Amino acid sequence: MGIIARKFNPDDIESAIDIWNEIVEDGIAFPQMEQLDKQAGLDFFLSQSHTGVAIEEDTGKMVGLYILHPNNVGRCGHICNTSYAVKGSERGKRIGEILVKDSMEQGKKLGFRILQFNAVVSTNEPALRLYKKLGFTQLGIIPGGFLMKDGHYQDIIPHYHVL
């Protein structure tokens, strides 16, 4: 089973919002609390500098996605930020690695110089291992920076990588 990364298109919307909303509903990784409907999802994914999707080559099924956009404006506009989502039933298959590597390539193509993650939740061990493997630098710990779905606060660990 090969996985390819490609640019999001409007025909992808149903699968994209299903995967995105699964992460939002879990309440342990994304800052968003509201589910996307079809129109809000389309507006959201098309408004990004780049939205990439991971597709299973044999079946054409979407198994993950990411959004990439500026992390800030003006004098810090050369720094981009991304969020990644892998379908729950597809985790552990290195799809996240494919998405992160593609986002790094796309960010560089778009003229960004640095990729920064603002809020990697400290309990997201698979992401932390992947970012370390890919050479990201941890910037420290923000105590209690993320409100978990169950109401407690968890530390977040910002990261960056020079593109």
UniProtKB/TrEMBL annotation:
SUPFAM superfamilies: Acyl-CoA N-acyltransferases (Nat) (SSF55729). It comes from the Bacteria. Residues 3-160 form the N-acetyltransferase domain. Keywords: Transferase. Coiled coil: none annotated. The keyword Lipid metabolism does not apply. GO terms for molecular function: acyltransferase activity, transferring groups other than amino-acyl groups. It holds the Pfam family Acetyltransf_1. InterPro entries: Acyl_CoA_acyltransferase (IPR016181), GNAT_dom (IPR000182), Mito_N-acetyltransferase (IPR052742). This is Acetyltransferase, GNAT family. It comes from Oxalobacter formigenes OXCC13.
